[in-house]
Specification:
Blueprint lengths: L1 E9 L3 H11 L4 H10 L5 H19 L6 E10 L3 E6 L5 E6 L2 E9 L10 H19 L2 H12 L19
Helix pairs in contact: 2-3
């Protein structure tokens, strides 16, 4: 049973809202709510409200508990652009596009017979562990320890211990 909620004509560009959507994609609803509450992005609040709307829809229409839901699909699309102009030197006009986005959140129920939903991060870690173990098999035993230490070393973090979400600009 799926529950869908849509938010249309949000006055934030889709690119900025997608950063927030990527954080909660595939997560359980309580975990996603916690992440959205503490995320310092302008798009977090409208995504949280849309998520809340989808949860209430699932409770009322299908009688599903919040703890049994996960975000199966979240899509952020572009909406129509509002075109405005600013005056520039020598009587010229400079075009401005005020961008709009549409958010669609689809929740699904976790079935008890199937395996539990894992977050994308844990799946990536498991794949990396498998790759490292396969690489270690081809390396001689005396070099395997150094090789494992190098693979498991933590990657450098952005300044002041904050990881970057958006690659093009500084935090």
């Amino acid at each position: 049973m799926k529950a869908i909620a849509r938010l249309q004509y949000l006055r934030i560009s889709a690119r900025k809202v997608r950063m927030v959507a990527d954080v909660i994609r595939g997560k359980r609803v309580p975990e996603a709510r916690m992440l959205l509450r503490f995320l310092i992005k302008r798009g977090a609040e409208p995504v949280l409200k849309t998520l809340h709307s989808a949860v209430v829809s699932a409770k009322n229409n299908q009688g599903i508990e919040e703890d049994n839901l996960y975000i199966s699909k979240i899509v952020v699309d572009d909406g129509p652009k509002l075109k405005r102009f600013r005056p520039r030197a020598r009587g010229a006009a400079y075009p401005i596009q005020k961008k709009v986005s549409h958010i669609t959140i689809e929740l699904d129920e976790i079935e008890s017979g199937k395996k539990e939903i894992k977050s994308i991060d844990t799946e990536k870690r498991e794949k990396e562990k498998e790759e490292v173990s396969q690489k270690n098999e081809s390396v001689p035993k005396n070099q395997a320890k150094r090789f494992r230490e190098r693979e498991t070393a933590q990657k450098p973090v952005g300044r002041k211990g904050i990881t970057k979400i958006f690659q093009r600009k500084a935090i």
